[in-house]
Amino acid sequence: GKTFKKPRRPYEKERLDAELKLVGEYGLRCKRELWRVQYALSRIRNAARELLTLDEKNERRIFEGDALLRRMNQYGLLDESQNKLDYVLALTVENFLERRLQTLVFKSGMAKSIHHARVLIRQRHI
């Protein structure tokens, strides 16, 4: 299926500035990489939103909700204590970007800069 969604309006100053800031901060190659994360997040939040409309005791809500929370746990986006669907809705793009290998390599001090981290990964040193 689709992996990203283009913004509705191509030249929104506010959005462009916000995107540029994130792209710079997390060393993304192009805005499509950012849109990809935003799309993944929006799908997860939509799923959570839909499950929240169902009754608490609904089998589908319990089953799919647990699966969704387990997945967020594995991705390291939520910890064990945050096992409610409301926490899924509170997730941000930054939560996702913080979990990228590039960011983790830079934060751990293996690379001098976020861009250096990307180069190291690309050249298979990491």
UniProtKB/TrEMBL annotation:
The domain of life is Eukaryota
Question: Which GO MF terms does the UniProt record name?
Answer: rRNA binding; structural constituent of ribosome
Record GO biological process? ribosomal small subunit biogenesis; translation
* Entry keyword set: Ribonucleoprotein, Ribosomal protein, RNA-binding, rRNA-binding
- Give Gene Ontology CC terms: cytosolic small ribosomal subunit
The Small ribosomal subunit protein uS4 N-terminal domain covers: 1-98
- Which InterPro entries does the entry mention? Ribosomal_uS4, Ribosomal_uS4_CS, Ribosomal_uS4_euk/arc, Ribosomal_uS4_N, S4_RNA-bd, S4_RNA-bd_sf
Q: Give one Pfam hit by family name.
A: S4
Family assignment?
Belongs to the universal ribosomal protein uS4 family.
Fetch the NCBIfam families from UniProt.
PRK04051.1, uS4_arch
Q: What is this protein called?
A: Small ribosomal subunit protein uS4 N-terminal domain-containing protein
Give the species: Nymphaea colorata
Give the source lineage, highest ranks first.
Eukaryota, Viridiplantae, Streptophyta, Embryophyta, Tracheophyta
